[in-house]
Amino acid sequence: MSERERGQMEMKSKVLITGGTGYLGKRLVKASLGQGHETYVLYRPEIGVDIEKVQMLLSFKKQGAHLVQGSFNDRQSLVNAVRLVDVVICAISGVHIRSHQILLQLKLVDAIKEAGNVKVLCPPSLAPTLQKWRTLWNLDGLHLTIKWWLGKRSKKLEFLLHMFLQTALLDTFSEALCQPGHIIPSREHVSILGSGEEKAIYVDEDDIATYTIMAVDDPRTLNKTLYIMPPRNILSQRDVVQIWEKLIGKELRKSSISSEEFLASMREQDYAEQVGLTHYYHVCFEGCLTKI
User: In 169-199, which positions are buried (b, 16+ CB within 10 angstroms) versus exposed (e)?
Assistant: First the structure.
């Protein structure tokens, strides 16, 4: 590394990423390194049995990342980790069908408070405009209350600046044509949710990571919610379907699902799947992402 490059890195914030081997976390690590930040990746002691994640961590290390062992169940290890950096980006999983680790973030907030040196915390995306996100039964309200509690608790850290990132929908939603439970688009049939005309915002995961890292040293984002809303990425479900039909040169068979039918089908699912389906409901039936 040249003296100029070393000097530029010293001017940039040091970044710690938790959940760095996850779906979005690995992209954040790549973006942070690519933009010249001294990057630290927190990993759990028990990760040694997961060969793919170990290989990913070693790859990060070869690219210049610092690997820091720590656990959300070991408060001191978290405190030691956050003392190394200026910025903490939390990317631990909130994907309900795989795991549910939202409450673990509260332990991270407590560690940051004890360490006292972190300047910026970027927690995972909060629900779009929580006040406007209507509760379905008590199920979704419970989950969103947890997220709201996290934000409220972290805001009590007077020394700490925040950047709440709202990423809208990951690109996987558009890739599956907004079909719950699918990640590959059908070449035969698609279910239209409601009218199919409500707009949503679809953002590539690598772009989300890039914008997040760009924002951590931008004073305009501090104590703000950063919305990633590329104008050309604001599309309805029918828009997405038409793009796919044009690509494959074929018109799909279509059927419609009313909001009543969708809600009735949710009652047959377990808690984790119900929460995920609730997101589809608010986005595709109510258009909440473009009514903020």
Answer: bbeebbbbbbbbeeeebeeeebbbbbebebe
Closest CA to 185 of 172, 195, 175: 175
Tokens of 50: 């997961």
Cβ pair 197, 236 in contact under 8 A:
yes
CA dist list (Å): 156 to 110, 112, 152, 160, 225:
11, 12, 7, 8, 16
Cβ–Cβ under 8 Å, residues 65 and 33 = yes
Instruction: Give the H/E segment covering residue 225.
Output: strand 224-227
Cα distances from 81 to residues 30, 103, 178, in angstroms, run 19, 19, 39
The CA distance from 208 to 238, in Å, is 24
Reduced to 3 states (helix: H, G, I; strand: E, B; else coil), residue 215 is: helix
Per-residue confidence band for 291, with pLDDT thresholds at 50, 70 and 90: confident
Q: Which two tokens stand for residue 274?
A: 């119900």
Reported confidence tier of residue 99, pLDDT bands at 50, 70, 90: low
Residue 43, pLDDT > 70, answer yes
Segment 173-190, tens digit of pLDDT:
778 899 988 889 999 999
Tokens of 66: 């610092």
Give backbone dihedrals phi and psi of 225, rounded to 5 degrees, phi first. -100, 125
- Rounded Cα distance between 292 and 283, Å, is 12
pTM of the model: 0.81
Q: At a CB cut-off of 8 Å and minimum separation 6, what does 259 contact?
A: 194, 281, 285
Active site residue 147: yes
- Which of the residues 53, 147, 155, 254 is marked catalytic? 147
